[in-house]
Amino acid sequence: MKLVWGLFVILTLFFVVNSAPPTCYSRVLTLNKEIMESLEKLQKYRRTKHCLEVLPKMYLDVHNSCVMTKLRDVMYILENLPTPQCREKPRIIGLKRKIRSLYTIINKVCYRDLVFFTDDCDALETGHSTPRQGEEQLQLLKER
């Protein structure tokens, strides 16, 4: 009986620990990953590939201070795709919802909770961030 009771307590604790609500930061990271995966799939899928040719290359990084501008630009492009058929595709509508949700969460819900480590706007198009600020601080330390 003690073995059954101990197993019950352990399973209950396991479910309580795993049922904790996601933090604002974890939700932002999850949405960021979902958007990048959806975008990659849509760019490969033959029915939506031609619709997304107008989108610039995009590598979302929620730690980049330029991410809000990039999200706003992509939302605008997706809202104004060249053909109505592209705008009405369910997968593209889903992508727009995810991007709008991420934008809203960063802008309103997580306001001042996120820390931006870089301001390299080119990194959101190339995927390669250059640590300019760190180099400048290193140069200042060397001069002292």
Automatic annotation (TrEMBL):
Q: Does the keyword rRNA processing apply?
A: no
Q: Which residues form the signal peptide?
A: 1-19
Keyword annotations: Signal
Keyword match Signal? yes
Instruction: List the protein's name.
Output: Cytokine-like protein 1
Species of provenance? Huso huso (Beluga)
